[in-house]
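User: I'm preparing a small set of examples for a lab meeting where we compare how different chains pack in three dimensions. I only have the primary sequence for this one, and I'd like the structure in token form so I can line it up with the others. Please keep the answer compact; I'll paste it straight into my notes.
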Amino acid sequence: TFYAFGTGFDFFFRFLYVLLMVTGIGFVWAWLNLHGIDVNVNREANRGQVGGYLVGQVSIVNRTRMPKSWLEVAETTGPSADTSSRGLALTREQVRTWRIQTYLTRRGVYKSGEVTLVSQDPFGLFRLRRNFLDPHPYIVFPAVEKLPNLDARLAGLPNDSRPTRRWDQITTDVASIRSYVSGDSMRRIHWPYTARVNELMVKEFDMGLSAEAWMLLDMHQMSHYGVDLDEVNNTEELSVTVAASIINRLMDQSIPVGLASNGDQAHIYRPDSSEEQRGRLMETLSEVRAYGQRPLADFIYSVGEHLNQLNALTVVTSSVDVQWASSLNDLRRQGVEVAVVLVDRSSFGSPADMRFPLEALTASFIPTYMVRKGDVLNDVLQTPVRGIPRSNVTSIGGCP
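Assistant: Understood. Below is the structure token output for the 400-residue chain.
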């Protein structure tokens, strides 16, 4: 423009006209490329699991008779969404379809279906974008590890060597047979054995295996370390994986399982052994975050109102506080079976370790299991720990 009007030469005017024409054609080309197009994203499932893939397909349809070229398309939603563009061209009224795989790295609830379409003119002057939004929610369950060798004492898992517990009421589990004593109920008499020995014999019962199992996942904000430093590598995520793995194992054994968590929202689900319950608990574990305001000790007392002598409770926590250990002692005095899984925060770089809660639990004879970053859960959940080796103790406040 400067040279054209400054010199008045026809060449510069012609060159200006060509530039304006090329610019106009380029913009109109890029703009028209984005219109008359429909984009759809279809997923084969509405849920997945960390470590797996969510598979689906993208379809793009040219509704006009005008060919489309220099197009780039990418889905931009979900965990670790593949934002790399796929170049394509469409003839008139053509349909293009291809499969997509989204690798699932983080648990949570996401939206699938947002696609960005980028149009470029042949001269490379314009890059126009258009977002196609057809959101479909899907859930990513937490990672689950197989636990074929889970210790029988953890959450009341069945085992032939598990000791029986005497019970005054009549149950389906007979522990032993003894001679009749004045005052015994006639309903306790074992008639076949009485006829064999020609003496009144009565049955003694035990409560058998715990009728229901509870998982208490501690999601108090002060109980965890590394949540703000790493999205997938912190005590919160490992705790959720531990809880999900144990729940999955117990439900595979047809044991009714309940869940309680003091996270960003308080969750309490009474035990059930149905597949609907499994899905319900996994969905909760997909969303729960360590933003809870209710301390673990107080929450244990709240959950204790739902427990009885036929229940087993497993607590998963990385809290270094010791007050909650006394809360578990109160439950044990009520006859509730208690086990604890400590997630060692020092293995994630925390200056504090699990020495004090471990000592308190050991002194109370509560079965305690230690899980550290990188551990194989099937190995570490086989045997309770008795203490922390000196080589694994991290100094606190500069003191050994």
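A couple of notes for your slides: Confidence is low (pLDDT under 50) at residues 159-164, 388-400. The two ends are 77 Å apart (CA to CA).

User: Perfect, thanks.
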